[in-house]
Inverse folding.
């Protein structure tokens, strides 16, 4: 199960020259606006014909400019969820959902209509018109419509970007369920690192029309060299933790290899593994185990890399008994502490620093 | 109303109805080209379509006579190959009505097509719909109010067409004398005012009901498809 893309396209003085592989699971395409994300996805969908290149989905050639092959969009079997949903205004929600099924190939491992309606909570909306839907409902219908066309892969171009934080929080669990319920590969375009940290398995970093780096999400998010590209405020590692206890005061105990974390607002049940995102800016480094702190999350760590930035900041990669963490401190502190690879120290995480939206169900 | 009045009414409805039906697919095609395609000479093409709107109708009628008269090249060709005679026949009145109503039809349909977001059609394509299906299931329903508006306008224009018709096919009772030319000829004879007034009332009634029916239809379509595009 994989999508392989290698295309070149020049337009308006901008050159897109990108090659990447999207394996099974969720592959996030991340980059600032203007990095070429949407162009890339449109080329995969067949809505844009690049100057040159090759695109194949599980060995099926969608585009091969040398061989003169370019499948039209309706024969690519890719479900596309657009940022602006693009529901058909003259059709009810039910008719929107069913639109693709009449053209879909029969057989295969299609998900049933009722499953999709259940998964996305669409039952109360079926008789409505798109103009009577809220933004979040609109996107859920768009996702359902794409799923019911029995695609071999789902393309999602910033499906949450048009929504406010509340709607976003409403719809993210649906995406997580989608990810766990079906083994459908997803190419997920976003410039919001919190969504990506929550959903993606593979990350492709796009910068100025080129693939800057690509790989497993945990590796890339804990790479101090990528902090400037990911955004100094948003950068941060993702680790898996098992829920061991919910206390009466609202704090949940999560176990990782290096010790216990205590976080508020964790929705998962005891025994479940959740994905925890720890922003680099919310990690403090101490040479000795600190005492008398208000924070209760202190982990013994080893410095694995120190990356001095161009500005006043420095990104520090840490190893916490096998889990990679990332800290962002001032370059002055890094010098004063004498941080260098191999040094043992302590990472202090503010418990409140882990936003609820950053805690996701993990499929592994 | 006398027999001549009925004849004029019957002929007017026949000519306008035929002209509108024949022009409809052609106008839709031209509207599509103008709204969605870029090609060399597009401005010229557009100008040619809109010409009858700005030319004096008598000039249009004379040009039609020059092209489609029985001794004119196109006219002779049509008569020899299809046996179709246009000049001074009701068929010629249909052609004149078509030409005069055409720009109005194209305009309304073009606006409706331009109001359809092509990205909605892209979405349909990604869901597996081939091009013709996208047109039939997405584009056509969305531009239906515009097609209707254009059709009504074309019909109204055809019904009222006078200058080009009388120049091209004259006003032969039972052949080419439509409502407007009948009204005109009644007014030319002493004591014809009453008969002219009768036909005038009928013309008004037809025009008003056409507008009312189209408004009603277009509201119904708009309610069904949930948009307000292209309504007249």
């Amino acid at each position: 199960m994989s999508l392989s893309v290698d295309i070149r396209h020049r337009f308006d003085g901008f050159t897109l020259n990108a090659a990447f592989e999207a394996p099974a699971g969720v592959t996030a395409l991340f980059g600032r606006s203007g990095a070429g994300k949407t162009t890339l996805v449109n080329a995969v969908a067949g809505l844009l014909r690049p100057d040159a290149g090759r695109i194949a989905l599980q060995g099926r050639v969608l585009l091969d400019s040398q061989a003169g092959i370019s499948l039209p969009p309706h024969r690519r079997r890719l479900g596309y969820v657009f940022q602006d949903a693009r529901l058909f205004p003259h059709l009810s929600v039910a008719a929107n959902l069913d639109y693709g099924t009449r053209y879909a190939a029969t057989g295969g491992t299609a998900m049933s209509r009722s499953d999709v309606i259940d998964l996305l909570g669409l039952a109360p909306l079926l008789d409505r018109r798109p103009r009577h839907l809220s933004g979040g409902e609109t996107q859920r219908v768009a996702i359902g419509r794409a799923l019911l066309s029995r695609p071999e892969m789902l393309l999602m171009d910033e499906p949450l970007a048009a929504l406010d934080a509340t709607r976003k929080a409403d719809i993210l669990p649906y995406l997580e369920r989608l990810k766990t319920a079906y083994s459908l590969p997803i190419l997920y375009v976003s410039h919001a690192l919190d969504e990506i940290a929550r959903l993606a398995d593979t990350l492709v970093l796009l910068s100025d029309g080129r693939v800057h780096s690509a790989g497993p999400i945990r590796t890339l998010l804990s790479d101090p060299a990528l902090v400037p590209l990911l955004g100094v405020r948003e950068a941060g590692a993702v680790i898996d933790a098992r829920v061991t206890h919910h206390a009466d005061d609202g704090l949940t105990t999560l176990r990782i290899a290096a010790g216990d974390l205590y976080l508020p607002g964790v929705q998962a049940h005891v025994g479940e593994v959740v994905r925890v995102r720890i922003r680099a800016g919310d990690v403090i480094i101490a040479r000795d185990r600190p005492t008398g702190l208000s924070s209760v999350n202190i982990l013994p760590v080893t410095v694995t890399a120190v990356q001095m930035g161009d500005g006043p900041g420095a990104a520090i990669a840490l190893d916490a008994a096998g889990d990679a963490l990332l800290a962002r401190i001032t370059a002055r502190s890094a010098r004063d502490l004498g941080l260098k690879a191999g040094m043992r120290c302590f990472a202090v995480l503010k418990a409140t620093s882990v936003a609820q939206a950053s805690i996701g169900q993990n499929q592994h | 109303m006398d027999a001549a009045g009925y004849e004029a009414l019957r002929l007017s409805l026949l000519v306008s109805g035929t002209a509108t039906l024949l022009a409809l697919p052609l106008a839709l095609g031209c509207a599509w080209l103008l709204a969605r395609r870029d090609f060399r000479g597009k401005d010229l093409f557009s100008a040619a379509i809109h010409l009858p709107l700005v030319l004096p109708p008598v000039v249009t009628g004379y040009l039609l006579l020059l092209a489609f008269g029985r001794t004119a090249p196109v006219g002779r060709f049509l008569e020899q190959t299809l046996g179709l005679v246009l000049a001074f026949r009701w068929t010629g009145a249909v052609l004149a009505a078509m030409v005069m109503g055409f720009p109005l039809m194209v305009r309304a349909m073009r606006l409706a097509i331009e109001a359809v977001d092509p990205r909605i059609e892209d979405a349909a394509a990604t869901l597996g719909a081939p091009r013709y299906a996208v047109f039939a299931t997405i584009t056509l329903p969305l531009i239906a109010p515009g097609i209707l508006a254009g059709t009504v306008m074309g019909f109204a224009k055809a019904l009222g067409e006078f200058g080009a018709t009388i120049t091209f096919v004259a006003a032969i009772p039972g052949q080419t004398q439509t409502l407007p030319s009948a009204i005109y000829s009644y007014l030319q004879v002493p004591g014809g005012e009453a008969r002219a007034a009768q036909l005038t009332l009928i013309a008004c009634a037809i025009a008003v009901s056409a507008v009312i029916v189209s408004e009603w239809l277009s509201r119904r379509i708009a309610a069904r498809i949930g948009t307000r595009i292209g309504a007249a």
Chain A touches chain B through 28 residues (CB under 8 Å). The CA atoms of residues 102 and 280 of chain A lie 48 Å apart. Residues 3-221 of chain A form a domain with the Rossmann fold fold (CATH 3.40.50.300). The first helix of chain A runs from residue 37 to 45.
